[in-house]
């Protein structure tokens, strides 16, 4: 019997984690908050990939593992596959989700520069959105690490709710 979590509960939990780390625990150190949020995502991704690959043989190459993340892993998490996968065949992969579920309720201009006054609502919204993306970056990094692919993962949002996750093998 599969265990499932309500999407609204997960959305609320993620929002609360980001809020707590960004505004309370590490309000004066956003880079530390980002690292902590990403670390939580890393552990989640590592454990989930362990669970989802338990019955599978090990992947023979990086592309096979990335395809697993795009199809099976993403389907388990978001009930849909990644919309687009690009690679330069030298260790860089770009996974694009055109309707990333965790950004579906975010409004505003996500590409706003995160500088200037913290009291500026536009900057605060952009900062919150970017902080929200450290968790899924951590999930992807943790899953790939468990599959034998050490990498760095970053996110790019320019047209909400679309999101591109770039993974560079280290």
Strand order of the largest sheet: 1-2-4-3
Helix content: 40-55%
The multimeric state of the shown protein is single chain
Question: Helical segment tally?
Answer: 5
| Termini Cα gap | 37 Å
Low-confidence stretches: 111-119
* Nearest-integer average pLDDT: 86
The structural class is alpha+beta
GO biological process, one term: endoplasmic reticulum to Golgi vesicle-mediated transport
Pfam families: TRAPP
Protein name: Trafficking protein
GO cellular component, one term: trans-Golgi network
Q: What's the SSE blueprint?
A:
Layout: H1 7-25, H2 30-52, H3 62-78, E1 84-87, E2 92-97, H4 121-132, H5 134-146, E3 151-156, E4 163-169
What features would you describe in this structure?
The structure is a single chain. The chain is globular. The termini are far apart. By secondary structure, the chain is of the alpha+beta class. The protein contains 5 helices and 4 strands, in the order H-H-H-E-E-H-H-E-E. Mean pLDDT is 86; it is low at 111-119.
Q: What descriptors fit this protein?
A:
4-stranded antiparallel β-sheet, globular, Trafficking protein
Would you kindly provide a brief summary of this structure?
The chain is α+β, with helices and mostly antiparallel strands. It has helices spanning 7-25, 30-52, 62-78, 121-132, 134-146; strands at 84-87, 92-97, 151-156, 163-169. Mean pLDDT is 86; it is low at 111-119.
């Amino acid at each position: 019997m599969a265990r499932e979590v309500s999407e609204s509960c997960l959305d609320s939990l993620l929002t609360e984690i980001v809020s707590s780390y960004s505004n309370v625990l590490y309000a004066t150190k956003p880079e530390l908050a980002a690292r902590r949020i990403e670390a939580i995502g890393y552990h989640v991704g590592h454990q989930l990939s362990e669970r989802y690959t338990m019955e599978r043989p090990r992947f023979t190459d990086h592309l096979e593992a990335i395809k697993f993340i795009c199809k099976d892993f993403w389907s388990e998490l978001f009930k849909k596959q990644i919309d687009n996968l690009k690679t330069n065949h030298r260790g860089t992969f770009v996974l694009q989700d055109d309707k990333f579920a965790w950004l579906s309720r975010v409004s505003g201009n996500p590409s706003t520069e995160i500088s200037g006054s913290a009291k500026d609502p536009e900057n605060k919204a952009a900062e919150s959105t970017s902080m929200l993306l450290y968790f899924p970056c951590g999930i992807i990094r943790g899953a790939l690490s468990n599959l034998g692919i050490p990498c760095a993962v970053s996110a790019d949002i320019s047209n909400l709710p679309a999101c591109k996750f770039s993974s560079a093998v280290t």
